[in-house]
Amino acid sequence: MIKINVMAVFLFIILPCARIIAQETDSTKAEKDTSEMFSPFRDPASDVHNAVVEAKRDGKRIILDVGGEWCKWCHYLDRFFKQNKDVADFLHKNFVYVKINYSKENENTKFLSQYPKIPGYPHFFVLESDGTFLYSQGTGELESGQGHDHDKVLAFLKKWAPSH
Question: In Å, how far from its chain's centre is CA 89?
Answer without folding.
Answer: 14
